[in-house]
């Protein structure tokens, strides 16, 4: 019976990994559409976001079923509870990516991102794809050191976000209030996407070690 239970836990873990991969596809398509104005890319991102929504419902149902199936103990309980927390973070990543795509679709046939700012937003999109890729890898091989490296990738996103805000708030900004508001929101969505990817890493550290990311970091320094 425990073997079957562990197989069910493995299925939940695999579902979480697939959700993260789909989140990466959402943010990649959303970035393409804000840069190029390709409305089909926007719809692709939104459709994939819908897939993530369905996977969230499946993961939540699976986790609740595992809690009710038989009393999980120690690491088993940690896996199920962490699975629920990871589902929430992965869900938010998908939503944030679709927000970016929706912004592009709303402005079609115009562009959300003025031409001079496109290279910066493209770098933010690339950073988002990279951190989602790392998070997906961590979910497959829950290594605390790899999970902790997500913080460094988030630092890059923070720097890019600050650069975007500085550009928008510059007195010489000449692309209008609407573009400034759109870019402020889009930048925030990218930043929060990366923050939630970091949360995936932190939850994975807890799953692998039974300790919080902060405690694990302290122990490594001692």
From TrEMBL:
Homodimer. GO terms for biological process: intracellular phosphate ion homeostasis; negative regulation of phosphate metabolic process; phosphate ion transport. It is found in: Cytoplasm. The keyword Transport applies. Residues 17-102, 122-203 form the PhoU domain. One of its GO terms (cellular component) is cytoplasm. It holds the Pfam family PhoU. Belongs to the PhoU family. InterPro entries: PhoU, PhoU-like_sf, PhoU_dom. This is Phosphate transport system regulatory protein PhoU. The lineage of its organism: Bacteria, Bacillati, Actinomycetota, Actinomycetes, Mycobacteriales. Gene3D superfamilies: Phosphate transport system protein phou homolog 2, domain 2. Keywords: Cytoplasm, Phosphate transport, Transport. The keyword Metal-binding does not apply. It comes from Nocardia bovistercoris.
């Amino acid at each position: 019976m425990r073997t079957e239970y562990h197989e069910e836990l493995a299925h939940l873990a695999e579902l979480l990994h697939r959700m993260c991969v789909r989140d990466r596809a959402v943010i990649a398509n959303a970035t393409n559409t804000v840069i190029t104005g390709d409305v089909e890319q926007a719809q692709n991102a939104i459709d994939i976001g819908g897939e993530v929504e369905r996977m969230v419902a499946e993961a939540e149902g699976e986790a609740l079923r595992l809690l009710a199936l038989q009393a999980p103990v120690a690491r088993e309980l940690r896996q199920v509870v962490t699975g629920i927390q990871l589902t929430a973070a992965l869900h938010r990543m998908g939503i944030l990516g679709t927000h970016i795509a929706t912004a592009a679709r709303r402005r079609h046939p115009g562009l959300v991102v003025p031409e001079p700012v496109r290279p910066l937003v493209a770098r933010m999109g690339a950073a988002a794809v990279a951190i989602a890729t790392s998070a997906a890898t961590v979910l497959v091989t829950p290594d605390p050191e790899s999970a902790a490296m997500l913080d460094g990738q988030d630092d890059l996103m923070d720097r890019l976000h600050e650069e975007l805000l500085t550009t928008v708030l510059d007195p010489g900004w000449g692309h209008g209030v609407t573009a400034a508001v759109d870019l402020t929101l889009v930048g925030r969505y990218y930043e929060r996407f990366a923050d939630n990817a970091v949360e995936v890493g932190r939850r994975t550290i807890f799953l692998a070690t039974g300790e919080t990311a902060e405690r694990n970091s302290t122990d490594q320094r001692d």
